[in-house]
Structure formats: structure tokens, C-alpha cells
Amino acid sequence: MKIRYWASLAIAALCLTGCSGFWNALPSTGGGTGTTTLSSGDFYVLNVATSQMVGLYVNAGTLTAIGNPYTLSAAPIAITVAPNNAFLYVSTLGGIFVYTINVSTGQLTLGNNGQAITPDAATAMQVDPSNSWLIEGGTGTQVINAIKINSSTGVLAVSGEAQITAALPKTTVNQVAISPDGTFLLVANGSGGTVTIPFNAANNSPFGSVGVINPVSATGASLSVAFDPIVTGSSAPRLFYIGETVATSGSNTGGLRAFNFSTVKEISGSPYAIGGLAPSSILPFSTGDFVYVVSRQTSSGATGVIAGFSVTSASSAFTLTALGSTFTTGSNPQGLVEDSTHAFVFAVDFTGSPDLIGYTIDSTKPGYLDPVISNSTGTDPVQAGAIGALH
């Protein structure tokens, strides 16, 4: 059981400067709506407009702050939590900073003597499963970087070490993902498509030969990437996913593409319509039974939408089947995560309405998302730009 010295602060800790209209009405979705008595693991939200990071968890149905907001030295861009839950990285306009995580309380401590471990303003980051490499890249550089880190502290393994780089077709880095077996890297490279790179954490230069999966359409772009979890009885993920613009027909042309991990071949039926234009984040659920993709806008406006799919396999063939409804989120959603208890899915919305929505899985409709938490993450407008959760 976690010891929460400040549990009584609850969500009021986010409102020390006087936020108004904190509680919001729950959105209407294809699942149910209501409240919950469940509790979640810890997660962290970047507020871009206020240059702050807030730590949060759900305590018996109540959204609760982990101490006071963390003030950042510059506007934040991206966040990632290491697989071992020992440290967290925040990319800002002033570089990438590392925090150690107290797993008992959720509190963060700024590491590396308060200095950035690299001046890179990364737009996407992830730590590999061995907790020994930070993979990061930023728009404008046309490379992806691997930085060797200390698996216990998260700082550079060797002071002043050089980054290992791999060239990309385009300068845009929307998202990166490393397979849970640590052997394969994906980079959502915008109009350059999705870059594929074999990865070996044991090598001093961990990158293999760069490959590219081109967009479905010549005018499309790769925005998001993700891997299936490793399910019981397997040693590697079954599928990986790409979120692209201009990938399907109709008024909402964003699409979810699904590929067999072992063959790197697109499965039958892919790409799948997602009810939106710009798939900003993909979340394969930890059970392997479902995958969700959030679009930051639709053809009717900036209100986001989450599409869900069930994932089944038979005779080594995989099938994605759309759930019977999509699920509404706020305006311009940027991130989607599952918490460490596997009871909640959280989405953050850059232009609010609200900043944060928490969903539980419907008890009668498998895979359906029921909104149960709807809140601000500070004194609005905060521009909630990214979210990271303990694993």
C-alpha cells in the first residue's frame, strides 16, 4: 500500500492559485457515464502554457494531486516514464531533464544537479526495456538519437558521452516507440512515413539499418506509433500500429494501420477508419484484447474522438474489429495512457473542455470506455500537452 503524506490535499492542491470551474460535466460517449470507487496508479501531466508538471492519481474515485505542481524551467514538450518506474524524463524548450520517482509516494526529485542531460528539445522520447537507452528526437534535426543512461539513476552513463544517431527521411519526429522485447524501433516521421529500425541494447551502437513504411496516401503523414504488449505464452509482441492522416475514405480520413510484428506485413483489413482526421496517440491495452486510438480533431471540429477495436487471432492471422461506438474526449487531445492498475485510461486535451478525462472499462460491454473523471489540471488555460504514467 502506498503511503500518501499529502493525500488530504486531494485535487485542491492543483488550485492553490485559484482555478475556477474545476469540475466539468462528463462527456457523452458510446459507453456508460458515471462515477467510480476504483483507485489508479500515479500519472503526470505537462501543462504547456504554465510551464508546469502535475502529479496525479485517483483515490477511491477522487482525482488527487501528488503534492504541488512542479515548476519547469521552460515550456514542456514531451514526457516518458522508464519501464522500471525509477525515473521520468521531461523534454522542454531548454533541454531534457530527468526526475527520480519515489514509488511509495509518487513524488519526483529533479536529478543531474538540476541540469539538462542534453540540450535537445525532443518532441518524442522513450526508454528501452533494459532501462539503459533513452531514444529521443526533435523536429528539425532529421535524426533519431540514442543516449546511453545509467539504469539506476537515469542520468548519462558516461559524462559528456556522444549521442548515437540514425538518419530519418524527414525532419518531423511525431512519436517514437520501442517494442516491449527491445528489438525494434518505430518513428512516426510525418510525410516521411514510419521509420523502422532494428535495435540491440547490448551494442555500443544500438541502431540497425533504417527502413521505411510509406504512408497509404502520397499526401498522408505518420503521426503515431505503438506496439502490442507481450501476452502470455509469447516472447514478442504480436502486432504494431501506425496512425496516419489520409489513410481511409470518407469525411474523417485518419486511419489505424496494423502490422504483424514477426513478418512486418500489414494485416488484412488494414487501415481501419477511426472517425477522425489526425490520430495523435495509440494505446494497445495491457491485456492485448483491445487497442484505442485518439484523433485530435474530426471533420466537424476540434473535439476529439477515441476509436476502439477488439484484437483477436486465429491460425496466426489477426483481426481488428471496431467496437460499436466511438468515445468522446475534449478538444485537441494529445495523449492517451493506461494506468499501472489497468483499471483506467486517461486522455489529455490541449485546448481543454476538459483538460483531463479518465475512463474505466465498461463492465457489460467489453472494451467500451466509460468516462468517470473530468477535470482541469491547473488554472486554465493550461494547454495539457502530454501525459505519462507509471507502468
From TrEMBL:
Signal peptide feature range: 1-25
Q: Which SUPFAM superfamilies match?
A: Tricorn protease domain 2 (SSF69322)
Report keywords, A-Z.
Signal
Q: Which Pfam families match?
A: Lactonase (PF10282)
Q: Which InterPro entries has this protein been placed in? A: Lactonase_7-beta_prop, WD40/YVTN_repeat-like_dom_sf
Name-wise, this protein is Beta-propeller fold lactonase family protein
